[in-house]
Design brief:
Blueprint: H1 2-20, H2 35-47, H3 49-65, H4 75-93, H5 98-119, H6 127-155
Helix pairs in contact: 2-3, 2-4, 2-5, 3-4, 4-5, 5-6
Length: 176
């Protein structure tokens, strides 16, 4: 129960930071890191395919409802649902390849989003705009993902416990 509340608060905080801070940064290349995508990828790595798809859908639907939305409702829900499922499925199939899965998801998610936008008739999606924006999106996302991936793997690692010493197992020597 507490983990679910922490997850909801984390997702809400990341979405607020994405909309209020990151989207307004004047970064070179015109793009910026997509923190919401990184949260979906990291949750899908932790929860698997079904959990990743559900989390991706819920986060995507919430991203569709955020105020600066100038796209078709449900576009991010579909994209994040597919990304969450693919990342979770890849983790289940190849447990040791988490870094490669994260890199592939970060590189392919903007292309998937542009493809879904083009299928839904978004006039802002074009090959020139995608070719100009995609490299900067990938580089910013990879830079942030490296730090996030390190932090999650560092703090979610199971720490070794000290072995308990049984009481009465050692004879007591008395000095006389």
């Amino acid at each position: 129960m507490i983990r679910a509340m922490v997850a909801v608060l984390l997702v809400g905080l990341v979405m607020i930071v994405q909309v209020t801070v990151v989207n307004r940064l004047p970064l070179p290349g015109g793009g910026g890191p997509d923190l919401v995508l990184l949260v979906v990828v990291l949750f899908a790595l932790a929860r698997g395919a079904v959990g990743g798809a559900v989390i991706g859908f819920v986060i995507g639907l919430a991203a569709d409802l955020l105020p600066p939305s100038a796209h078709v409702m449900g576009q991010y829900a579909l994209v994040f649902c597919l990304v969450g499922y693919a990342v979770g499925r890849a983790r289940e199939r190849a447990p040791g390849s988490s870094a490669i899965v994260v890199i592939a998801a970060i590189m392919l998610a903007p292309l998937l989003s542009a493809g879904v936008g083009a299928l839904m008739g978004d006039p802002r999606v074009g090959t020139r705009a995608l070719a100009a924006l995609w490299p900067s999106l990938v580089m910013y996302n990879l830079a942030v993902a490296a730090a996030a991936f390190w932090a999650v793997s560092r703090f979610s690692r199971e720490r070794p416990r000290r072995k308990a010493v049984p009481t009465g197992a050692y004879p007591v020597r008395r000095r006389v």
